[in-house]
Every structure is written in structure tokens, then in C-alpha cells.
Amino acid sequence: MWPEAVERIAAFLRVSGVEGRLEELLPGAGPPPGQNLSAKGFDGNGAGMVAIVPAGRSVDERKLAAAAGCDEVEPTAATVFPFAETRVFMDQSILSFDAVWLEAGSPRHILGLTPVQLASVTNAETADLLREG
Length: 133
Description:
Elements: H1 4-16, E1 21-24, E2 35-44, E3 47-54, H2 61-68, E4 73-76, E5 87-91, E6 100-103, E7 109-113, H3 115-122, E8 125-127
Parallel strand pairs: 2-6, 3-5, 5-8
Antiparallel strand pairs: 1-7, 2-3, 2-4, 6-7
């Protein structure tokens, strides 16, 4: 049995028909092979949005604002997967990976999908979002 927050994600996957992998990480273990992602929350013109980027990389707020058609964006707390009621942007570099992993309900639980599946279930728009250097 998954913890409640993780079970909500599992239920969402069952309803959506996407065959993702939910896994619980052992203490100190990293994710399976593939690219680990992070989801960062922003507000743009009063609307919530999420930027999904490779873990350890920063979002260029000017690039995100341009992609969203906003004058500027401000960091906020990210909503949880599947990012309901937010506009989702995914950095275009993520499409080059075979598998991606995203935190799923707790820091110990991860969700594995293909980039196409992630974009599909979150209605993500792809754009160049990464801060250079």
C-alpha cells in the first residue's frame, strides 16, 4: 500500500492509462537509470505554472516568461504531480532522454515515465527554459 499522496498519483496513472513506474527509494539510493527531473513553481500574471527541468539545473525566468507570454514570472511553491490547474512547461532537452524520474508524493517516492508520457499527462508545453552557465 502506498502512502496517501503516492496513491493519488497511482490512481491518476490508472485512470489516464499511462504505464508509469512508481518506486520507493531505499535511504541513500538514487533513482534508476534515466534523467532525474525537478518541478519548480512560478506565478505569471496571476496564474500558476510549473517548469520541469533536469535536476540540478536552474530555470531562466526570462525564457519561461517569454514561453508563457508573461511580462515576468515569480518563483512560488510548485504544485504536486500531475500539476492540476497549472500551466506546465518542460525544458526541450528532456525530450532526448529515454526515461525520466520525478518526485511522486514524497522525497522517497519517484515516478518514472518517458518524456512523451510526461508531456502528455501534464499537457506540458516544451520550450528552452534552462539558465546558461
